[in-house]
Amino acid sequence: MNVKIEPAASDSGLTDLVARTESLLAHRWGVAAWWVELAACLDALGARVTSLRLNSVGQHTLAEQIRNDAPHLYGTLRRLDEESDALEQAILRVRISAGQSAGDEGRLKELTTDVRGVLRRMRRLELRSNSVVFEAYERDIGGE
User: Fold this and answer.
1) Above pLDDT 70, what percent of the chain?
2) Distances in Å between the alpha carbon of 62 and those of 35, 53, 107?
């Protein structure tokens, strides 16, 4: 085993980012700074999806270790990658929509719904990713 993995704890950076985004949605200021901040949050969320990918951990990836030591989880890992791809696309669509809607108070309700949908998907992806790592670590690979 070349990669030491540990059960993933809740990612406080992601938690803070989600909380910041939720706060923006709850306090729709309707000023230019609000739209800029929302765009920044969506950009950061897109970057975080990439960081949740289990197969992007260095030269000897976690995905390789799971494939070798816990092969029954490899299919789940691939599905998580597919979900990550779909979520990245959804975030991009919402980000484009936010940019096109900037300043349009009439689009806030629809945009808020779209952003909250992305946040829900992001949380589910994080939980499922953590679950796979935990299962592989606890049951199959063994912790140190």
Assistant:
1) 81
2) 37, 10, 41
